[in-house]
Design goal:
It contains 17 helices and 14 strands. By secondary structure, the protein is α/β, with parallel strands linked by helices. The longest helix is centred in the C-terminal third of the chain and has 17 residues. 47% of the residues are buried.
Length: 369
């Protein structure tokens, strides 16, 4: 009598919304134990605490992707972050490793502000004014889709992060006189300003307008062509918030992320990436006071981890990364239980047509920084 092997069926995610937080914790812990060294869970700094506590490695997106690639025993990498982060992990990880995003709806509003069709159209419009492949280096913030990283790879460009943007721009200007920087205008503008590039040599490129809304003369004069994109969280911080803490908290130091608006960065004492913010506040003397301009989950964690200091959230309203927040305990438990049963859900795989060039742009960045 012959037997037929049945293909495992996917467990529906809806079942996990009937579980209590304690039941979800047990489910996640049991699945982790069953999968053992075959599994690595990555938790981004902005992730909510109920998920963050299960991460094997915690940090920013690039650091997490690099750490995952170092785990040669791991077959499965669950990235508790957003889509572009999981794509970076897939680009950097080894061929036998599978990257999983617990909820495919976890995207990035900033990354969505620059799409490949708009960027290619901008390149064509630039070609009507000058020779972009001779004069312009495309630089994409790591917060972008893989096809934009591939675009940079094809056109001699590169990727940057908030911590290495200055070094990357130094590299680009040593090669060509202009930069097309996307998708975040604020990181590009704040970094350029600190490099001494004057405001009249920075232009904003609005993809909804012909030539980005700029004259040919303005394009020819520009050193930085800044894409009209921004982080919806960091753009919430305003100069008035800095003024409020200066007036009400004696000796406060204001530290903000470079995705904040220029007016906020100019008023801050310190500016840097999430890792820089964490290191700085953690190393500060007891009794110091800090107003921190970055995502709320990270600031609340800093407050908990540094009870000997005053840690304040710079904005009076709630500023959480809503798409990052989609990675909840329910989706993590669902992805793990399916994996435990031999079913891979929500695998992230960069298409072959983009893979080589996107990896090239990333490798250029890693070599430079």
């Amino acid at each position: 009598m012959s037997t037929v092997a049945l293909t495992p069926r996917e467990i529906p995610v809806d079942l996990f919304y009937n579980l209590s937080p304690d039941e979800l914790d047990r489910s996640i812990a049991d699945s982790r134990a069953a999968l053992g060294r075959r599994l690595v869970i990555l938790g981004h700094n902005y992730q909510q605490d109920g998920v963050y506590k299960f991460a094997d490695f915690k940090g920013d997106s690039l650091m997490l992707s690099r750490r995952a690639a170092e785990q040669t025993d791991a077959e499965f990498i669950i990235f508790c972050g957003v889509h572009f982060m999981a794509e970076v992990a897939d680009l950097l990880c080894r061929p036998h490793q599978t990257v999983i995003l617990p909820d495919m709806a976890a995207g990035c509003s900033m990354a969505d502000m620059a799409d490949i069709e708009s960027v290619e159209r901008a390149w064509e419009e630039l070609a009507g004014i000058l020779d972009p492949d001779e004069q312009v280096t495309p630089v994409t913030y790591i917060n972008s889709a893989a096809d934009l990283k591939a675009f940079c790879g094809r056109h001699g460009g590169i990727v940057c992060t908030s911590s290495n943007a200055r070094k990357i721009l130094d590299w680009t200007f040593a090669r060509r006189p202009k930069v097309l920087f996307f998708p975040d205008q604020h990181l590009g503008r704040n970094t350029s300003k600190r490099m001494g590039i004057p405001a009249d040599r920075m232009i904003l490129w609005d993809p909804a307008q012909e030539n980005g809304g700029n004259s040919a003369e303005a394009v020819r004069n520009a050193a930085m062509i800044l894409w009209k994109g921004f982080c919806s969280v960091h753009q919430m911080f305003a100069p008035a918030h800095v003024d409020h803490f200066r007036a009400t908290v004696p000796g406060v130091q204001v530290i903000v992320h470079p995705e904040c608006r220029e007016e906020v960065v100019d008023k801050a004492d310190l500016v840097g990436s999430t890792e820089y913010i964490i290191r700085t506040v953690t190393a500060a003397p007891p009794g110091t006071a800090w107003a921190v301009g970055t995502e709320l989950n990270l600031v609340n964690r800093l407050k908990t981890d540094n009870p000997d200091k005053q840690v304040h959230f710079l904005c009076p309203t709630v500023c959480v990364c809503s798409t990052m927040y989609r990675i909840d305990q329910q989706h993590l438990a669902w992805a793990l239980e399916n994996l435990r049963d031999g079913v891979v859900v929500n695998r992230i795989r960069v298409p072959d047509e983009d893979r080589e060039m996107a990896k090239l742009a990333l490798d250029r960045m890693l070599e430079v920084s």
